[in-house]
Amino acid sequence: MQLLMDRICRDGKIREGNVLKVDSFLNHQMDIELFAAIGQEFKQRFSDAEITKILTIEASGIGIACITAQYFGVPVVFAKKNKTKNIAGDVYTSQVESFTHARSYDILVAKEFLTQEDKVLIIDDFLANGSALLGLSALIRHAGATLVGAGIVIEKGFQPGGTMLRKQGVRIESLAIIESMDQNEIVFR
Ligand code: 5GP
């Protein structure tokens, strides 16, 4: 998606540890016109699929998922990051290793919001090592729902998540795939 790639080149900042900061339009301040274009692009790419729900993970996936959901006309469910050790009630849980914070945490979704009938599209901001996507797809599996695919805004193609998940048969549509990046240049696939 050219508009997005141009924006990444213009406003993205590369930090230590292969982290791309896109706080000015995606992760802190949010450019809603760009989000609308992203949502329409996801809708077009998954136009052949039946989708009943969008699943994302707090916090940075929520904005994109909500704007995207307007084009699909379906609800958004976001997996909560569990802050306490005792998980109460009727929830599905799984584990995610945080790429940006180098620790692991549990995520959960209430059973009432993910059911066997659901055909789920995952939406997230980044795909790096794939742990967030694996955690979300585990929630879908626990619920007996169907994973239709994943819409990713920025995939870091030099990290293993995309390859690993596609090999497992997950349909992934990434709007910008970064082949390599350093202080001088960002190269897209
Ligand atoms: P993964 O689980 O695929 O390793 O990483 C995906 C998650 O980590 C995303 O939900 C995203 O929040 C965060 N993430 C991974 N790489 C980056 C990055 O380069 N920049 C930012 N801002 N977030 C990242």
Summarize this structure as a short list of keywords or feature phrases.
189 residues; binds guanosine-5'-monophosphate; alpha/beta; two-stranded antiparallel sheet; globular; 6 helices; 8-stranded mixed sheet
Please outline the major beta sheet. Answer: 8 strands, mixed
Small-molecule components bound: guanosine-5'-monophosphate
Structural class by sheet pairing and helices: alpha/beta
Number of strands: 10
Shape: globular
Low-confidence stretches: none
| H and E order | HEEHHEHEEEEHEHEE
The side-by-side strand order for the widest beta sheet comes to 5-6-4-3-7-8-9-10
Rg = 16 Å
Summed up, the helix count is: 6
- Beta-strand residue fraction: 25-35%
Q: What average pLDDT do the residues reach?
A: 95
Kindly report how far apart the N and C termini lie.
Answer: 11 Å
What is the helix fraction of residues, given as a range? 25-40%
